[in-house]
Amino acid sequence: MIKNYLKNTWEGLYTVFVGMKITWKHLFVPSVTLQYPEERAKLPERARNRLFLNYNDCIGCMQCATACPVNCIEIETVKGIPTDMPDPTSKGQKKALWVTKFDIDTGKCCFCQLCVFPCPTEAIYMTDIYEYSEFDRDNLVYNFASLTQAEVKEKQDNFDKFQAEKEAQKVAAAKAKAEADAKKAAEDKAKSEIKPSDDEIKE
Amino acid sequence: MQNYLIEIFGSEIVAYILATVPVLAFIVVFVLFAVWLERKVSAHMQDRLGPMRVGWHGVLQTLADFLKLLQKEDIVASANDKALFNIAPYVVFVTTLITYTMLPFTSIFIGSNADVGIYFVLAFSGAVVAGILMAGWASNNKYSLYGSLRSAAQIVSYEIPTALVVLTMIMLYGTLSLGDITTAQTSQFWNWGIFGGPVLGIGKILLVPFMFVAFIILFISTLAESNRTPFDLPESESELVAGFNTEYSGIKFSMFFLSEFANMFLIGAILVIFFFGGYNSPFGYLGNLLGIEWLIPIEQLFWFLGKGMFFVFVDMWLRWTLPRVRVDQLMTICWKYLIPYAFFNLLIVGLILLI
Amino acid sequence: MKTEEMILNMGPQHPSTHGVLRLELVLDGEVVHDVKPHIGYLHRCFEKHAEAMTYAQVVPYTDRMDYLASMYNNFGYVGAVEKLMDIKVPERVEYIRVIMGELQRIASHLVALGTFGLDLGAFTPFLYLFRDREKILDLFEITCGARLLYNYMWVGGLSHDIHPDFVRKTKEFINYFRPTVVELNNLLTFNKIFIERTANIGVCPAKEAINLGLSGPNLRGSGVKFDLRKNDTYSIYDRFDFEIPVGEGLVGTVGDCWDRYYVRVQEVEQSLRIIEQAIDQIPDGDVSKEIPRRVKPPVGTVYHRVEAPKGELGYFIVSDGSVNPARVKVRAPSFVSLSAIGQMAKGYLVADVVAILGSLDIVLGEIDR
Amino acid sequence: MSIYDLIFYLFATLTIVSALMVVSSDNIVRSAFYLLATFFGVSGIYVLLGADFVAVTQIMVYIGGILILLLFGVMLTSNITNVEIKKGTAKILPAVIGIGVLLGALVSVMTRTKWKLQLTEIPQTTSFELGKLLITDYVLIFELLGILLLIALIGAASMARREQE
């Protein structure tokens, strides 16, 4: 019992000194931390931070928005018209859509990188920017679409017009056809009843 | 010192008040420095840098923090006992401050070289408990109450080994006065308490190991009395959040802080006075060598503060090395280990002194 | 003497509840009579959420369960889905997964050991261990770009192949890290105060541990030699030579806090051994070859369990044949561990509750899900 | 008025006021804390009388020991703050008699004492003489008291020990 008592005392003091020796050694080890704003760690090339969209390369295929588990990407597109097609991507892929809205809400983003992989044109990718805090939450929504409001309206109008023209053409064609049919029908009055054309049902 | 001041100002009251100013200023400056040191020591021991922004290597960081603390809102919860809650920090601080009157900083600056000396210091460091209990109870918070009760139990228990070792040393020096104890260890370092003090002959050699034991016991028990790791149970942040000062903020919190660090230097000073010659230089004074008389007190102040700071550093060193003991183990260390050892040490030192 | 019981709320805002956990302690003085954990402060509807996600989209959500061991959560989930779809992943993928999983186990254990020390008041070992954990996170970062929530293992493969520097840096890390374990042992493990604080505290005998359903280091700390990597082997763990450390009661009783702690220390060493063996054998190949474009498992159910750093992590997945899982149920090891605290802490002091909680190594993200 | 007079009146006021507060306070814990001020005031008066050793002992024993014990007892008793404390006069006659006797005794002592009107000499400190006396003339009593306290210490330690189960 006395032996145990003395042993406890000795262990208590000895292990304290062992520990003190270690911390003493560390007193002279150079620091492993960085003085942050002045010194910055070099991020590896695969670093996953704020999302970025190379707008010119986006073809508006919506695959990133579908892949996103938190729905932080919002895309709206307008179909291009033959006379006003968007420029092809930097790799020469043709675009059929005007991307009128491409918003990424980085406040929602969970940095999972799931949106990056499906992108066929490598337009969306993660950058090494990690300082983008804002005072206003709305500022965390990044608008990547470079079209102005007016331009969007114009594209929309263009498309609507184009659509309307197409419609009108079709209607006109249908009308012409109908007229022709009517004529024909008038000519062959006695033959049969008029049937509605397939085109009309589709439209 | 007092007589000199009385002569200058012609009034006792002014002289006495002025005599306290250097001590108060010392405590404030020391705490500012010690907090910075604590942060730096901890940082470098943990491979970090610690504060680096304000001033050279952050020396003014504590000042900035202190200014921030002063500006903070003074929160008093509605369920607190307001009067006691407000008084408690000052009770703690004042009782710590009072003990400084007995410390011989140099041979000429000593608040009071009273005969009661160390007894006075022990009494008032025990009286701190009242302030801590007041803080814990007035906070009306279970964690605070636990912290203060633990603190009280701890300080009261550890007074016993402290007193036993102090008794040993008093036997050696034959006086309670801290000033006289220091003068007994004058000239060279082999007259220091740890080397048997003023005793001469065979007794000196026999005393050394027992003085060493006494030193370790006094170090541990005073460490516990000042509530530092590994005995920082009253404010053990992993169990009791912050112990008795959980509810405090702003200037009142800084009062607790001041008193904790003032206490750290106090225990360092007590150890130095008992075992390491107080303000005495280990090798003789440069002032004597050069024949400049006014240099001696400055040298003495340097040695006293230097030795005291060394023990403050050891406190910090221990704090950043060790885990915390549990409340019952705290009592085990005190009652089952320190007290018997201190007791036997007292007995043996007494026997050695008789021969 | 008649004394009154006092109820003390520990948490949800408390320094040592490892997250937002509330423990209701019924105390007699400082002696604990009962501990009631109240959970749910971190509930994020993971299981319900998974039903609205595609199988691939669930992976980032599994990251956020045990956020200190995200790789292993991925490992378990993709294992379950692959079992359901009967996919055989390439050898290279298996090796990389095992290496990543073991690195993650080390990282998770380092946090566990460090915070355990922190709970007992030792601050310095905590920071030493975090310094080394940082090195592991760096390894993950060069591989997949993320430091905490990796989304690295995908059904059928991996999101990225390993970085060209990965093998070299991992070897460097192993050489660097070995002495740290020795240092930790000197500084903390065999420190007398630490031993006094943890030995004979929160004793959980083997039988009780099994009854409580404990798993992982908590079960092994009680002296039960049970490790899914050996006992119900998955992936390619059967190819490696490693031991299962169990609690032996070196300084106290078998199954005390110190044993649970020391099992983790030893497991870190064993994980290093596995990595050393695996790192030299990584075969060449393509890591994304087997990744299906659309993960659409057949109708059926699967239960797949892995030895996560915190214990047995099981995924029960019900598939209705669509692209979304019909049900994902997780058997979270921390949840089971936490449920044991009531029995373990009875009769000890308040300070011991902190030690016991720390030794169980819980993560609230996994408990509340 | 010299500084000593000022300090004396300060301590005297402190003692009397806080003693009154002790008996008149509604809250028992507060009473205990007022007692702290009373003890402190009394020890201050001891110092002024030159009894420095007694003064420090007063702080050591009464504040550091007895008061703390008292506070422990009070704080650890649950619901103590809700207890109604009776402050009204209950038995007037015995009280009057008791106070009368006490007052008479005090007044008679006060009038008979030969007061020093002028402080002729600054009171000498006593601890050195006290120490000498304790070791020489009163050594037996001192030793016996020491043994008594040691017994108390051992007894307390054995009582506080947890029962072996």
Helix content of chain C: 40-55%
How would the global form of chain C be characterised? globular
In the predicted model, the low-confidence regions of chain B spanning at least 5 consecutive residues are: none
Record field, number of beta strands of chain C: 8
Strand order of the largest sheet of chain C: 1-2-3
The SSE order of chain C reads EEEHHHHHEEHHHHHHEEEHHHH
How large is the radius of gyration of chain C? 20 Å
Q: Note poorly predicted spans of chain C.
A: none
Count the DSSP helices of chain C: 15
From the N-terminal CA to the C-terminal CA of chain C, the straight-line distance is 45 Å
What oligomerization state is this entry in? heterotetramer
Q: Largest beta sheet of chain C, briefly?
A: 3 strands, antiparallel
Taking the alpha carbons of the first and last residues of chain B, their distance comes to 40 Å
* Count of strand segments of chain B: 0
Mean pLDDT across residues of chain C: 85
Helix content of chain B: 55-70%
Q: Tell me the major beta sheet of chain B.
A: none
* Fraction of residues in β-strands of chain B: under 5%
Biggest interface, chains and residue tallies: B-D, 30 and 30 residues
Give the SSE map:
The complex is a heterotetramer of chains A (203), B (355), C (369) and D (165).
Chain A: H1 2-26, E1 51-53, H2 63-67, E2 73-79, E3 97-105, E4 124-126, E5 141-143, H3 149-187, H4 198-202
Antiparallel strand pairs in A: 1-4, 2-3, 3-5
Chain B: H1 2-9, H2 12-45, H3 61-71, H4 82-99, H5 117-138, H6 142-173, H7 178-183, H8 202-225, H9 237-240, H10 250-275, H11 286-290, H12 295-319, H13 327-354
Helix pairs in contact in B: 1-2, 2-3, 2-10, 2-12, 3-10, 4-5, 4-10, 5-6, 6-8, 6-13, 8-10, 8-13, 10-12
Chain C: E1 6-10, E2 22-28, E3 31-38, H1 46-51, H2 55-63, H3 70-85, H4 91-119, H5 124-144, E4 153-154, E5 157-158, H6 166-189, H7 192-198, H8 206-212, H9 217-221, H10 228-231, H11 257-279, E6 300-308, E7 311-319, E8 325-331, H12 333-339, H13 341-345, H14 350-360, H15 364-368
Antiparallel strand pairs in C: 1-2, 2-3, 4-5, 6-7, 7-8
Helix pairs in contact in C: 2-3, 3-4, 4-5, 4-11, 4-14, 5-6, 6-11, 11-14
